[in-house]
Design a protein that fits this description.
Shape: globular
CATH class: Mainly Beta
Distance between the termini: 38 Å
Structural class: mainly beta
Length: 298
């Protein structure tokens, strides 16, 4: 069954957006280095090759912070001294320095699917192979020891490491509900329905006692785009914790706020933001993106 997402009349898949932390060379009055935090997103619209960046407050917007990030960048993440991203059409994990220099759009080659979500633990990179993939992949942070089928998990678009677990969200283009699953970081003890009743989870973020997810509603006859939340143990799920998004795609938390991308059937242009309690949602917090999807902060 073909999986179509119309973005400039092209076959498209879930886009990834991540917000990340980047140190800068500023100093405070005591002389200590100040760490500036940014939100980053992949501009996954038709023909796009760029990763955007802005401050957490929505200023200093640069839609082409990394202008040549390969063929339709999707998921984005920061770990250590590097920015990493996935490429849906390029089937690769890319990498660059935090200042955007030394871009390597083919840092890891991926053999299947249309990769999107990306996450990290202390020693590994994990990626989702997307709507038409069959697995979650893993490699060392330096790109070695690649395991394309680390976990058998079809249709996964969102992945997130938290504590001793890897969480992932699946897509269901048939229009029925999907789920969030989890496993130990070594791939054992898989719980395929850790949280049920989500609407095509395309982003996951975890903060303290809660797990949040982006409900990408494009394939639901009733829409269904929203931000969901549940207790960290999977109990008390609220699928419509934040409403009003336009095909929410990707999720991140930083500075007391939740950030997400409004892909709007893949032609969206905005990044949304709300307080952690779901209040003061601003669907147009950052504008001018090109089909963004996925968010992470740090």
């Amino acid at each position: 069954m073909a999986f179509m997402r119309s973005r400039h009349a092209r076959l498209l898949v879930m886009a990834g957006l991540v917000s990340l932390a980047t140190p800068v060379g500023a100093s405070n009055p005591s002389g200590a280095t100040v760490k500036q935090t940014y939100v980053y997103w992949a501009n996954d619209g038709g023909g796009s090759t760029a990763i955007g960046r802005a401050s957490l407050g929505g200023g200093s917007v640069n839609q082409s912070f990394i202008a040549k990030a390969g063929d339709r960048p999707c998921g984005v993440g920061v770990h250590g001294h590097f920015i990493y991203w996935t490429e849906e059409d390029g089937r690769a994990v890319g990498r660059a320095n935090l200042d955007g220099s030394h871009v390597n759009a083919s840092f890891i080659r991926i053999s299947e699917g249309s990769p999107c979500g990306i996450t990290f633990d202390k020693t590994h990179i994990y990626w989702a192979t997307g709507y038409n993939g069959l697995s979650i992949g893993r490699a060392n942070l330096d790109g070695s020891n690649v395991k394309q089928d680390f976990i058998d998990a079809p249709g996964v678009d969102a992945v997130r490491v938290y504590g001793n677990h890897l969480y992932w969200g699946s897509l269901d283009i048939s229009g029925t509900s999907s789920s969030i699953s989890r496993a130990n970081l070594d791939g054992t003890d898989i719980q395929k329905h850790f949280i049920d009743g989500v609407t095509n989870a395309s982003g996951i973020a975890i903060y303290r006692n809660y797990i949040y997810w982006a409900n990408y509603g494009h394939f639901q006859s009733s829409g269904g785009s929203s931000i969901g939340r549940a207790n960290l143990d999977g109990s008390n799920p609220k699928e419509n914790f934040i409403t009003g998004s336009a095909n929410a795609c990707g999720l991140a938390i930083a500075g007391g706020y939740i950030y997400w991308a409004n892909s709007d059937s893949d032609g969206g242009t905005t990044i949304g933001r709300a307080n952690l309690d779901g209040s003061q949602a601003n669907q147009n917090f950052i504008t001018g993106a090109n089909g963004p999807c996925g968010v992470a902060t740090g």
